[in-house]
Amino acid sequence: MGLKTPEQYVESLRDGRVTYWDGERIDDLTTHPRFRQALAIAAADYDYADAGRRDARVYRAEDGSEANRIYQIPTEEDHLRRRMDFFESSSIVAQVTGVYMALLSERDAVAAINPQYAANIEAVYRHARDNDLRAAEVITDPKGDRKRRAHEQDDPDLYLRIVERNDRGIVVRGAKLHITGASLCHELVVLPGKGLKPEEADYAVAFSIPVNTPGVSIINKSFANAEHETFDAPMTARNAIPEGFVIFDDVLVPWDRVFLAGEIDLSAKLTRSLGLWERTGGLTEAAHRAEIFTGLAQLVAEQQGKERDIAILSSIAELMQFATVLRIMLEYACANYRTMPSGMIYPDVLAVNAGKFHYASNYHRIVQILQDMAGGLVITLPSVKDLQHPEAGAYMRKYLHTKQGIAVEDRMRVFNTIRDMTADSYGGWLLVTALQAGGGLNAGRIMLNRAYDIEHARAAAKKAAGIS
Amino acid sequence: MGLKTPEQYVESLRDGRVTYWDGERIDDLTTHPRFRQALAIAAADYDYADAGRRDARVYRAEDGSEANRIYQIPTEEDHLRRRMDFFESSSIVAQVTGVYMALLSERDAVAAINPQYAANIEAVYRHARDNDLRAAEVITDPKGDRKRRAHEQDDPDLYLRIVERNDRGIVVRGAKLHITGASLCHELVVLPGKGLKPEEADYAVAFSIPVNTPGVSIINKSFANAEHETFDAPMTARNAIPEGFVIFDDVLVPWDRVFLAGEIDLSAKLTRSLGLWERTGGLTEAAHRAEIFTGLAQLVAEQQGKERDIAILSSIAELMQFATVLRIMLEYACANYRTMPSGMIYPDVLAVNAGKFHYASNYHRIVQILQDMAGGLVITLPSVKDLQHPEAGAYMRKYLHTKQGIAVEDRMRVFNTIRDMTADSYGGWLLVTALQAGGGLNAGRIMLNRAYDIEHARAAAKKAAGIS
Amino acid sequence: MGLKTPEQYVESLRDGRVTYWDGERIDDLTTHPRFRQALAIAAADYDYADAGRRDARVYRAEDGSEANRIYQIPTEEDHLRRRMDFFESSSIVAQVTGVYMALLSERDAVAAINPQYAANIEAVYRHARDNDLRAAEVITDPKGDRKRRAHEQDDPDLYLRIVERNDRGIVVRGAKLHITGASLCHELVVLPGKGLKPEEADYAVAFSIPVNTPGVSIINKSFANAEHETFDAPMTARNAIPEGFVIFDDVLVPWDRVFLAGEIDLSAKLTRSLGLWERTGGLTEAAHRAEIFTGLAQLVAEQQGKERDIAILSSIAELMQFATVLRIMLEYACANYRTMPSGMIYPDVLAVNAGKFHYASNYHRIVQILQDMAGGLVITLPSVKDLQHPEAGAYMRKYLHTKQGIAVEDRMRVFNTIRDMTADSYGGWLLVTALQAGGGLNAGRIMLNRAYDIEHARAAAKKAAGIS
Amino acid sequence: MGLKTPEQYVESLRDGRVTYWDGERIDDLTTHPRFRQALAIAAADYDYADAGRRDARVYRAEDGSEANRIYQIPTEEDHLRRRMDFFESSSIVAQVTGVYMALLSERDAVAAINPQYAANIEAVYRHARDNDLRAAEVITDPKGDRKRRAHEQDDPDLYLRIVERNDRGIVVRGAKLHITGASLCHELVVLPGKGLKPEEADYAVAFSIPVNTPGVSIINKSFANAEHETFDAPMTARNAIPEGFVIFDDVLVPWDRVFLAGEIDLSAKLTRSLGLWERTGGLTEAAHRAEIFTGLAQLVAEQQGKERDIAILSSIAELMQFATVLRIMLEYACANYRTMPSGMIYPDVLAVNAGKFHYASNYHRIVQILQDMAGGLVITLPSVKDLQHPEAGAYMRKYLHTKQGIAVEDRMRVFNTIRDMTADSYGGWLLVTALQAGGGLNAGRIMLNRAYDIEHARAAAKKAAGIS
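^ inputs. structure came back:
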C-alpha cells in the first residue's frame, strides 16, 4: 500500500485485462511494443523520486499517509492551485483519475437516496488513493439512433444497462466510447451519460470496477503510431495515450462497488458534477497550451528576424489575448471557489464553463493565426534523421540558417512543435477534443444557460428599459 | 467649497465659456434649449440628497471633508469596486473626471523631472476635488496628414503646441478632437496624444485650465437631437452628452497650471497612464452593457414565448458568454491590483487591456446576435405617441399582444431599448466608441504586446519544444 | 393611364387613406411636413424626363405602351441586369413594387387550383402597370405568442384571417408588420407569412387592394426624423421611407382582388416566391452598398495620407473581398437564370440565397472593419452648420486640413456618409435589415438547406469515403 | 515520345536523381518502400486506358498528337472547365505541371526582353508535353533573416542565385523550399520567389532543368508514413505526395534552359503569373473539398438519425454556404475569362483571388463546424483491423450500429474520411496549405488590393457622399 514506483505500476497492469489494438488481442500489454510509448508516459507519473516533482505530485492525506495529489480533496484555494500545477506536470492518465472528486462532490446527494452507495464511494476512493491507482472516466454510450431514447433502440444495449440484479450485485451490458487511458488504468469509474426518463431506470447505473473484471474488454485507438522520433514529435512523445472503446459483456458488479442502480434523479447530477471537474482540468490544459502557442509564435518571429514586424505583432497579440482570457478565467474560478457543507471546495462553475467555452469556440481560429504566421516549413521541414545524415544534414544546416545565435536544431524544434500540436495527428486530436471534451459547442452553450445568473441580467435590462 | 448642488453646478457653467452647436454660438448654455437634455444629465450627478445615492457618490477625503467619489485615490480593493459602482450610477461627465487619477499615477515620474509640475498636479487635483468640479480628458490632436509627424505638417498647429513661453506661462495653439462633455466640464485636462521625437519638444505639453479661459472655444456634436421621448429612447435620455471639438487659439496657460512643457520622455507615459484608467472605466461600462444586452434578449424571448426555443437559448448563451468574460476580466483586474510607492493602487494592466480588447473585437458580433434574435420590430415599432392616440393606440394594443401577463408597454420598452442601444444614433455611437475609445483595434493589440508577460510564454514554449 | 409625373403621383395619394405618424392622424399626407421628405423621395422615382434616367426606368410593354421598368417580366438575361440597374437608381418604394414578379412566378400554380385567382393576378398586375402604381409587400403577421400557432392565440386576429366570405368578396381582419413604404404606395399586395396547417385555412389569404380601402389604417415609423441636413446625412436624405404597421379592420376584399382564400398548400409557395425576388433586390442593394463602403474606406485613407499603410490596406482588402463575393454571386445568379414554362426567367435560387446569407452573416463584421479604420471623427465631426458659421467654420477649416488638394468639405462628406450608413439611425436600420430582410440568419440557413444540391455533395462524399 | 504508360513513367525516374528521405539516401526510388505509396499515386495519373478517364486526361495538341490535358493551352471556356475536371481526377504531381501555363502567359513579356528566353520557354514546354513529363513548381527561397534582403544575408546563398555565367550557361547555387512532388517529377521549373531590387540582379533567375541534373539534391518530407490502411485513411492513400527541400549545389543550367538571368523587372511578373494558375488549381480543389465536407456532414447526420435536427441542419447550411461561394467564384472566373493577344485565355483574376481568399480565411472555421457536428468518434474510432478481428470486430458491429440500413463499415468510412481530412496528419497538411499555398493571408489581401477595381468603388463612394 502507499505510493507505487514506476516498476510496481507496470507490474500491476499484468492482471489479465483484455485489450485489443490494431486488430490484435494483447494479453500482456507491459511487454507489447504497441503499448511501449503509452506505458512509459503513464509510468513516468509514478516517478516521485525527485524532490521538486515529489512536492507537486504528493500530498499528505488526513490519516498522515502520503498519496498522489490527484486524490487531495480541496478545502482551500491553495489546493486548487496545486491541482492545476499537478495537471501541468502529469499525463492525462493521472488527470482522469480526478473522477473521484466528482463522486465525492455528490456524496451527500447519494447518501440521501441510499447511504450504502455513499459508503461505497468513500471506500472505493480510499482504496484507490491508498493503492495509488489510476481510474478512467467511463461516461459516453454509443447511443445508436439519436432520434430514439435508450430503451427505444434497435438493440437495447446501445446504452449501458442493468440486465440482472442478484444477491451478489448487478450484471451490466453495453459499451462506452472515448475512454481516455482505459487500458492503462486500474479502475473503470462508470457513470450515466445523460439525464434519463422513468422508463429508463435500468440505464441509471454507476459503479467502479477493476479493469480486469471478467467480461470487460477494451479496444484501443490512438492518434499516435507505435514509434515516434521525440525530436520530430515532442508533444506526441509526451501525450500519446490511447482512448478505449470499453465493452461490458454481462459484467457482474458487486454491491459494494455500486453507486447508482435505477435512481434516475441522481444520474444527471453525477454527470454534471463530473463535467465541472473535467472542464476545470481541460481549462488548466487549455490555458497552458495557449501560453505555449504564444511562446512558439514569439520564437518563430525571433528566429526569422520578424519580431518587430507589425503584422506578426498583431498575430501574436491575438494569441496573447486568447492565453490571457483563459488564464484569467481559470485564476478567477479558483479564487472564487464555493464551499460545500462537507468543507470540500470547488471552482466557480460559471467561470470554468465560460473559460472552457471560450477555448472551444476560438481554438480553430487561434490555430489558424499561429499557422498563418508560422509559414510552410511547419509541414515541409525534413526529419531530424535527415539532419543527422552527413550530406543532407549539411545542406539543411546551410539553408535553414537565419542569423547568428539561432541554432538550426532550435528552429526545427519550434516548427516541429507547431506541426505536432496543430498540423499532425496529435494536432488533429487537439482540434477535436477542444470541441468535444465535455460535449460540443451546443453542450457548452447549455452549460452557460444553466450557470449564468440570468436574474441579475434581467434586472439590469428591466432597469435600463424602465420596466418596473 | 465642498459638494455642489445641481443648481450650483448649473450656475457655475455661466462663466463666459465659448461654445458652438449646430451653427450657433451659445453664450449661456444653461438657458439654451440645445443643452437642456445634456445639462439635466450632468446636473443629476450632483444629486447627493438620497442616502443610497450619497453613499455611492460621496467619500470622505483625507482632510475629513466630503468629496465626489471620482476623486478618491484608491488604496485598497474596495475603493476600486466603489469606483466601478460609481461609474454605473453616474454620467460620462462625472466619469471622465477620473482623468486626475492618471495625473496622480505619474506624479512621481513628473516630480523627478520637475518638482513644480508635480506640485501643480496636486494643487489642481485638490482644487477640483474641493470645488466638486468636472474635468474633461483632452488628448487627441487633429493629426492632419498621417504620413507626416507633428512638425512636418502643412500647418504646424495640426498638433497642439507651445507657441510662446513667457514669465506668466506658456501660450498654446491647436485643437483637440473627440472631447467628451467638454462644454459641461469646468476644467480641461490636456495631455499629449502620443510619443514624440526630440525635434517635437514644443508638442510635449500638458496642463489643466478652466473651460472659460480666453482663447478656448468648443464646437459641440452629439448623436442625440435636442429633444427625445424618454419612452422611445430611454438610453439616449440618460447618455446624450455632446463631444467637443476644442480649439486653443493662443491660450495662455499660467505656470502653476503646467504639467509638462517640452519634456518629451514623459509625454507617452502620461498618455499611457490615462489609457489604463480610461480603459478601466470603459470595461466597467462594457461589462454592465453586456449584462443589459443579455437581459434584453431574455425579455424578448419571454415576452414572445420563445424562452425554451433552442436557437434562442443558443443566442442568449453567446450573450452570457460575452458578459461573463467581461465581468470576470474586470473583477480579476480589481482583485489583482498593483500598489505604487505612494500607496495608490491600480487595477491589473493586462486584465484591463485584455478585457477592453475582448469588448472591442466582439462588440459588433454581439450586436448582430442580439438583433438577429430580436427581429424586425426593433426598427419598425411605432412611437409611444401613436400608442397614446385613441385609434392608433387601440390597434397597437390589440396587435402587439403576445400573451397574458405581458404588457404591450413593456414589450415596447424592450424593443425601444434594443433599438436605442444598437440600431439608432446612440447605438451607432456605441459601435464606434466600442472600437475607438482608447484607439482602435490595432492600439488594443499594441497594448497587449506591451502588457503581456512574453517571457513566461517563451519559457513554456521552449520547454515544450525541448529547447534548453 | 400610362406613366405618371411626380405631380400626378403626389396628387394620386390624396385618396382618403388613413395614416398615423408620431401620434397624429394625417388626413392628407401630401401637405403634411412629416411626410415631406419621404414623399419627395418617392416622387423623384417618377421623374422620367432625363433621357438617361428614362432609359433605366422605362421599358416598352408587350402592348407597345411605356411602363415603369419594375413591371418588366424578364425573359432574357439583359432584363435581369436592367432590373438591377433600376434598383440602384430608384427608391425602395419603387423596388418593393417588384412584388408582382412573385405573383406572376406562381401564376400557373395558382391557376391549377383556381383559374379565377390566376386571372385576378394578371388583371391586377396590368392595372398597376398601366397606371404606374406602387405596391407594398404585405407579409409579416404580428404572431403573438410564438409557441402557439395562428388559431391557438389568445386573439385569433394575431395572424391576418378571413372572418367572413360573402357574395361580394371576403372580409379580412388582422394586421401586418414591417411594411416598407405602405403609406406611399397605391396597392397593398397581401400574402401569408408562412406555411399553414389544415386547421388554419382561414389564415391562407392573399389579395391586393388599394391603400384607401375602407378599414385599412397605417401607423408609420421611420428611422429618420422629419428634417435632415442633406450634407450631414446624405444617405438618409435619399432613403428615408417609413415602414407601416398596417391594420385591416374588417376590410372587404372583392372577389376579383383575391388570389388565395383558404388553399393552404399554395400559401408557402407564394411566400417563397416573393422571397426570391425580395432577396435578389436585397443582394443588388448589398453589392452596391459594399462597393460604396470599399470606396469610402479608400477615400478616408487617401484623405489622411494612409493609403499605403499596411494595416489600412489590409482592412480595405477585407472590404474588397466582401464586395467582390456579393457582386459575383449576383452576376452569377443573373447569368445562370432559369426559365419557366411561361418564358419568364428568374435568377439562380442558390446563388441569390447564398449571396444574401453572405451579406447577412458578415455585415456587422464589415461595419466593424470600416469603423475601425475610419476613426472617431465618424461620430464627433461637427455639423455643416458649424462649418458655415464664420468663427466656428474657420476653426474647422484650419484643423480638419490634412494635405494639399483635400477639401475639408470632402473629408466631412466622407465621414458623414460613413456615420449616416453605419453609426446613426439609418445605419442602425441597415444593420437590422441586413439580418432581418427575408427573415433572420436561421431563415437564411433554411433557404440554403432547401436550395443546395445535397445529392451532388453526398455523392462526392461517398466517393471520397469509398462508400458504394 | 507521346503519352507514357505507368510503367514507362516509373522507369523514367531511374535516372540517377539524388533524393533523401528520413535520413537515408535513396538511389533508386522506384524500388524503395518509402516511395512505394507516392509512386503509385503519381503513376496512376498515367493510366490512360479507361475511355472515360482518357477523355478527361488527354487532349489533341495543335500538331495532332495526343498529350496530357495539363499541357492544353486554353483558348476557350471549355478548356478551363476541362482543366478543372482534370484537377479533380489527377494527383497533385500532375497538377503542379501546370507551371508551364504561367511561363506561356508571360512569353510575350519575356520575348520583349530577350527573344531567346521566350524561345527557350516554348521549346521546354514542347519537350515536356511531347514526352508526357511532370514538372515541379520551384519558387520559395529559404530567406534566412526576414529583416534583410537577399544580398544582405549572412550567407548570400539563402536565396537561389547565379554564381557564375559562362559560355555553356549559368551556374546557380541555393535551395528552394516546399516543392511539391519534386522527387516524382522530371523537370524542375525554377522561378524567383519575389520582386527584386537592382542590386539583387543575380537573384533574378528562372530556368527549367531535369531533376537528375548534377548538383541537384532533394530531401523529402511527407505528412504520410510509409504505410497506411486505405480503409482507415482513404484520402491519405490518394494524396500522399512528399514535398521536397531542393538544393542546387553549383548546378550548371545550359543557356537553352534559361528564362531569366538578371532581369529584375520580369521576376515579379513571372511569380505573379504562376500565382494565378496555382490559385485557380487551388480553388478547384477547394470547391471540391468543400462539397465533400458538406456531403460528409450529411452522411454523419443521416447515419445517426439526426438529419432533421435543427442544430445539425444549421451546421450543414454553413458548410453548404462555404461550398457554394467557392463553386460560384470558380464558375464565374471561368465564364468571365480574359484573352491575351496570343489567344490564350485565363480565368478572371479577381474572382480567383477572392475565391482563394475566401477559402483560406474560412477553412479553419469550417473544419470546426464539421468536427463539432461529427462528434468524438472522429478520433476514437478503432481501426479496421480491429473490425476484422473476430471478437473485437463483433463488439464493434454490435455497438456501432445505429439503425436499419446503415452498415457499420460505412459509418466507419465516414468517420475515417473526416479524421483523415481534418484531424490527422493529412488534415494538418490541409489546414496549413489552405493558408500557405500562394503565401498566407496577408499575401491574399495584397492580391485583392491589386486585382480589385478600386476606381469603380471610389466613384460609387464619391457619388454616395456627394463629392464631385
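Residues 294 and 317 of chain B are 9 Å apart (CA to CA). The radius of gyration of chain B is 24 Å.
thumbs up if we can close this ticket
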